[in-house]
UniProtKB/TrEMBL annotation:
PANTHER family: GROUP II PYRIDOXAL-5-PHOSPHATE DECARBOXYLASE (PTHR11999), MIP05841P (PTHR11999:SF70). It holds the Pfam family Pyridoxal_deC. The keyword Disulfide bond does not apply. Keywords: Aminotransferase, Decarboxylase, Lyase, Pyridoxal phosphate, Transferase. This is Aspartate aminotransferase family protein. Its cofactor is pyridoxal 5'-phosphate.
């Protein structure tokens, strides 16, 4: 064994203690560290010929890199839809690395059994019936990819074609109907060879991101054959929900695969205040839900659910002598894009066991309350205006000025970022450049949004001054 490896093996406890100290330093400062920052490109160094050992590498990291990390796991990072990591999920994620399981086998480790148990917890949490098969994937993009791959196969089979074996050459173009699909949907269609242009946009309800079901019915009636419908259960700009009950009823009249993207909106099911938004979810053929958003577990983790396990097997079966017969094996590498699968179910299992239904109900309702409070603060502000009603945990707003531009928003948000207290990301809603506050962190309270408004007003005042000179 190399001397450095031998040394680190003998001093593993000290290495882990040093790692814990570095992490503890971060957590101790989580309320004050800048949630966003600009970090210039670093000069690339040559790989060392002789290593320095784990403890020296930890020292080097702590000195040169640790303070340049964005505090995206903290309470005032409102960009994208980013959760943090609950204490239980952090502990579990450390164990994931320590045990280093390839969570695909059935009985050679407890890991796949824990994944199945965790998926069962989620089915109960989201109100999914027992017919759904589920598994963990890396994120909402790959969850959408996995589901749309099945949808592609299913559409082919309606025409007597087997796309997974024969490919799509010579077949008629697939049609995907949707009103406000997440950007990962066209990305997935591109990767699948279906193509981004397969998406046919359906009208939304007035001043909404939700699909106009009457317009969808007209599109379905005009189709010459089976197609795919992608519904939203929580859009990224306004957390708007398509009417899943009404869409599900259309399946009695038309032949289509219904995929529901509920990446973070699915957590509406945790609260009696919002659970009705998820009514009709069991009409879905496939479902996407993210874990590293509102569940607040470390990246990367999401789930995919399907009513068509046999179709999923046709698409993702992995034929190799050492993996066994796909028809007989329940192993996950026959059902997901990955053969090598990190044990990403464990942080979800830990956090669900640690905080239970009540804990996540409180988290969801506290985040939504903070969002509504922020919305009211913005309504009473001289500098900002809401672009949409606050429905759950995302607040979409913009600068109160004529002809606001994307460049003006970018300049404004860069100044907010450099202030060092809060972080937001830009968006566009119905052609108007704006700002999104996505509130999904387990630490966030009303006070964090009150501070956010203070920062926003301060930056707005500073940017006005040069104009008045």
């Amino acid at each position: 064994m190399h001397p450095l490896l031998q040394h680190d093996r003998q001093n593993l406890t000290a290495i882990l203690n040093q790692t814990q100290q570095l992490a503890a330093q971060y957590f101790a400062r989580q309320d004050t560290l800048a949630p966003g920052r600009f970090v210039a490109d670093i000069a690339l160094e040559h790989m060392p010929d002789k290593g320095m050992g784990a403890q020296a590498a930890l020292d080097y990291f702590g000195k040169h890199f640790a303070d340049k990390m964005a505090n995206s796991a903290g309470p005032r990072y409102f960009g994208f839809v980013t959760g943090g990591s609950t204490p239980a999920s952090v502990a579990a994620d450390w164990l994931v690395s320590a045990y280093d399981q390839n969570a695909c086998g059935s009985n050679d480790s407890i890991a796949p059994q824990i994944e199945r148990q965790t998926i069962h917890f989620f089915k109960e949490m989201f109100g999914l019936d027992d017919a759904y098969f589920g598994s963990f994937v890396t994120g909402a993009t790959i969850s959408n990819f996995t589901s749309l791959a099945q949808a592609r196969q299913w559409v082919g089979e309606q025409h007597g074609l087997d796309f997974s074996n024969d490919g799509m050459a010579g077949s008629a173009p697939l049609v995907v109907l949707s009103a406000t699909p997440h950007s990962s949907v066209p990305k997935a269609l591109s990767m699948l060879g279906v193509g981004r242009k397969a998406i046919v946009k359906v009208d939304t309800l007035p001043e909404r991101e939700a699909i106009d079901v009457a317009a969808l019915e007209q599109k379905l009636a005009a189709q010459q054959g089976p197609c795919i419908v992608v519904a939203s259960a929580g859009t990224v700009n306004t957390v708007d929900f398509d009417d899943l009950v009404a869409i599900g009823k259309l399946k009695t009249k038309f032949t289509f695969w219904l995929h529901v993207d509920a990446a973070f909106g699915g957590f509406a099911a945790c609260s009696e205040k919002y659970a009705a938004l998820m009514n009709g979810i069991n009409a879905a053929d496939s479902i996407t839900i993210d874990a590293h958003k509102w569940l607040n577990v470390p990246y990367d983790a999401a789930m995919q659910f399907t009513r068509h396990k046999s179709v999923q097997l046709k698409v993702f079966q992995n034929s190799a002598a050492y993996l066994g017969d796909p028809a007989q094996s329940p192993d996950y590498f026959h059902y997901t894009p990955e053969n090598s699968r990190r044990f990403r179910a464990l942080p979800s299992w830990f956090t669900l066991m640690a905080y239970g239904k009540e804990g996540y109900r409180e988290l969801v309702e506290r985040n939504c309350d903070a969002a509504h409070h922020f919305g009211e603060l913005l309504k009473n502000s001289e500098d900002f205006t809401l672009l949409a009603p606050v429905r759950m945990n995302v607040v979409c707003f913009t600068l109160k000025q004529e002809g606001v531009t994307a460049d003006a928003i970018q300049q404004f948000l860069a100044a907010v970022r450099d202030d060092g207290r809060v972080f937001f990301t830009p968006t566009v809603l119905r052609g108007v450049p704006g700002i999104r506050a996505a509130i999904s962190n387990w630490l966030t309270e009303r006070a964090d949004l009150e501070l956010a408004l203070e920062v926003l007003k301060s930056v707005a005042d500073k940017l006005k001054k040069p104009e008045s000179v």
